[in-house]
Amino acid sequence: MLKYILKKLLIMVLTLWIIITLTFVLMVSVPGSPFNSEGNSNEIVQQNLEKHYNLDKPLHVQYFLYLKSVATLDFGPSIKQPNQTVNDLLGRGFPISAELGLVTIIVAVLSGIILGILAALRHNGVIDYLAMGIAVLGISIPNFILATLLIQKLAVDWEFFPVATWKSPMHMVLPVLALATGPMAIIARLTRSTMLEVLTQDYIKMARAKGLTPWKIIVKHALRNALMPVITIMGTLLAGIMTGSFVIEQIFAIPGMGKYFVESINHRDFPVIMGTTVFYSAFLIVMLFLVDIAYGILDPRIKVTKKEGE
């Protein structure tokens, strides 16, 4: 297991380096200067600004300075907000984005598992069809369209919830629903299919023969094995939630990292673009690593062994 963890850590570092390099290449490939949009016709001022942000140096020097900033976790000042550093923006936006993502994951996992279990226990019944109908709608409707519909109906027409911002639990309901519906649908369908398979296993039949209650059979014996495929896709779902939050944060005017990332692209704020990209990439890579470890802990049958011939 230790060798497996070390190998995963090495792959994580290599993956992050590739992302950092690709991000840098994409940024320097964009023609023009980020200061051109300022309407500043004074070439001397532009040259001084480029010198201040090291944009006048050769590309290989810029690249190594960029790697140094990543290694020291100091991404420098924002171009469009010189009085703010990228670290300040990340520190201000990440807690809000993390709160949105955490609540979304909890809602998606719990509701998806419950729907999947109910559908499996009432296979080919009304509850099964209803749960799977909800799942199909959740998969079919993109979160930004669902967000617009929720705002129109629940916030504007019926005035049940506030339209936007992030000030109270009531402000969290609509963005969480818009972001959690898709992952919830995937988890519900996967839980249903695996639960139906698990319920036909011999050890479940033995538990029933011993007179165990259905609830105890589900919770103690069937659920753990049924959740293994769900754990497998949690990394992918987490990545989808975190990247999807960019759009949702814009729609609901949530002051998270998505706001700064989108604004930095519009304004060609290179330090913020690279800082948020590296930060999100590192966060997702770590989460995927933790999912792999959790998968091995939940299923002791999984052993990390060498392949034959190695």
Describe the structure.
Helix 4 (86-121) runs parallel beside helix 12, helix 6 packs across helix 7 and helix 10 (228-251) packs across helix 11 (257-267). 75% of the residues lie in helices and 0% in strands. The chain is mostly helical and 310 residues long. The longest helix is centred in the middle third of the chain and has 36 residues, at 86-121. The chain is flat. It has a single domain (1-310), classed as MetI-like fold. The model is unreliable at 304-310 (pLDDT under 50). The protein has helices at 2-29, 43-52, 59-71, 86-121, 126-140, 143-157, 169-198, 202-209, 214-226, 228-251, 257-267, 270-298. The two termini are 16 Å apart.
Give a quick precis of the structure:
The chain has twelve helices and no strands. The chain has helices at residues 2-29, 43-52, 59-71, 86-121, 126-140, 143-157, 169-198, 202-209, 214-226, 228-251, 257-267, 270-298.
Q: Profile the largest sheet.
A: none
Examine the coordinates and then state which fold CATH places here, giving the name of the CATH topology.
MetI-like fold
Give the total of domains. Answer: 1
CA radius of gyration is: 24 Å
Q: Segments where pLDDT lies below 50 for 5+ residues?
A: 304-310
Strand content: under 5%
User: In the CATH classification, which architecture applies?
Assistant: Orthogonal Bundle
Q: What's the tally of helices?
A: 12
Q: What is the number of beta strands?
A: 0
How does the overall form come out from the CA principal axes? flat
Order of helices and strands: HHHHHHHHHHHH
CATH class descriptor: Mainly Alpha
Instruction: Determine the CATH superfamily.
Output: MetI-like
Mean pLDDT: 82
